[in-house]
Specification:
It is a single chain. This protein has one domain: Rossmann fold (3-Layer(aba) Sandwich), CATH 3.40.50. Helix 1 packs across helix 2. The protein is α/β, with parallel strands linked by helices. The strands form two sheets. It has a seven-stranded mixed beta sheet with strand order 5-2-1-6-7-9-8, with helices on both faces. A two-stranded antiparallel ribbon has the order 3-4. Helices cover 51% and strands 15% of the residues. The chain is elongated and about 110 Å long.
Length: 303
């Protein structure tokens, strides 16, 4: 390893365990590196959705043996950009959190502004803003939550490279990076890293002070590492689709077998009925009463 490449630590090559569908996949290696160098005790995430970034942070802390609590905030209802969804998304996130990260992941459901009083000022080491993506919305989230971050902490902004469909985080990021130590990733819809107060970690100081040549190397390396995470995500997605397809096929096979059994039962009922009719028509009483039935058919019917 190039000793001058401070951004290439063993954790830079780590991949998370869980790959729910996410636009954050390619930032997983940086997430592990960041947890390694910052060693945050408290993380707050505004916008968790299916949980990818939350689980990436939690998995890195678990592998490092680093005690950390990440508070994952979301309405778990969706919005115009992420789309709207049902309770199954929250239940899926909760299942993984309770099973794999019971001591490090805390789910907080509700609107961000409603949850703000839960957190004291200067109590958080890392704030990840990835909720509503309009300009006014992102400004509101930043202004309402920036005071929870302690001096020496960081704020992450996702989707800073998106400029269509009403996205406006890029406008806020352009304003903030002019007056604060920062670093910008362009891949994976863009990720902005903003320092709050004095930068106290050597690796982060080097990140923010990197000249343009070094910055491009950092971006290129993390984009390459992120592409591996994206490939793993796609493989996991295909594997899940295959599992679902097999499950569906099994269900269809079961339904087909059930219908075959019903058809066989109906054939049995029909066969028994035909036998009974044949026996009746072949009986002596049926033959004896045949003239009476003929007369009955010949008589006029009364209304």
């Amino acid at each position: 390893m190039d000793q001058r490449a401070f951004w290439l630590r063993p954790t830079s090559y780590w991949l998370p365990v869980h790959f729910p569908v996410s636009a954050w996949n390619t930032h997983a290696p940086f997430a592990a590196w960041l947890i390694d160098v910052l060693r945050p005790a408290s993380v707050v995430e505004l916008g968790t959705h299916m949980g990818f970034s939350c689980f990436a942070f939690a998995e890195a802390a678990a592998r490092l043996g680093h005690p950390m609590v990440i508070s994952a905030l979301d309405s778990w209802q969706g919005d115009d950009h992420a789309g709207f969804y049902g309770e199954d998304v929250l239940e899926g996130v909760r299942a993984i959190a309770e099973r794999d990260y019971p001591d490090s992941v805390r789910l907080v459901r509700g609107w961000f502004s409603e949850s703000r009083p839960i957190f004291e000022d200067a109590s958080v080491d890392l704030l990840h803003i990835d909720g509503r993506h309009g300009y006014e919305d992102s400004v509101e989230d930043y202004e309402e939550w920036r005071s929870v971050v302690r001096d020496g902490g960081l704020i992450l902004f996702h989707d800073i490279a998106e400029r269509e469909r009403g996205f406006g985080v890029w406008r806020l990021w352009n304003q903030l990076q002019r007056v604060n130590p920062s670093f910008t990733f362009h891949h994976g819809h863009g990720l902005g890293v903003l320092a709050v107060g004095e930068v106290r970690t050597d690796a982060l100081r080097k990140l923010f002070d990197a000249d343009e040549t070094t910055a491009e190397r950092i971006r290129s390396d993390f984009e390459r590492l992120g592409a591996e995470a994206e490939e793993r995500s796609q493989a996991a997605s295909l594997a899940e689709q295959l599992r679902q397809s097999r499950l569906h096929a099994t269900q269809l096979e079961g339904e087909l077998e059930r219908r075959i059994q019903i058809a066989e039962a109906l054939r049995g009922v029909i066969g028994e009925r035909d036998r009974q009719i044949h026996d009746l028509e072949s009986s002596t009483s049926w033959r004896v009463t045949a003239p009476l039935r003929a007369v009955g058919r010949a008589l006029p019917h009364r209304d």
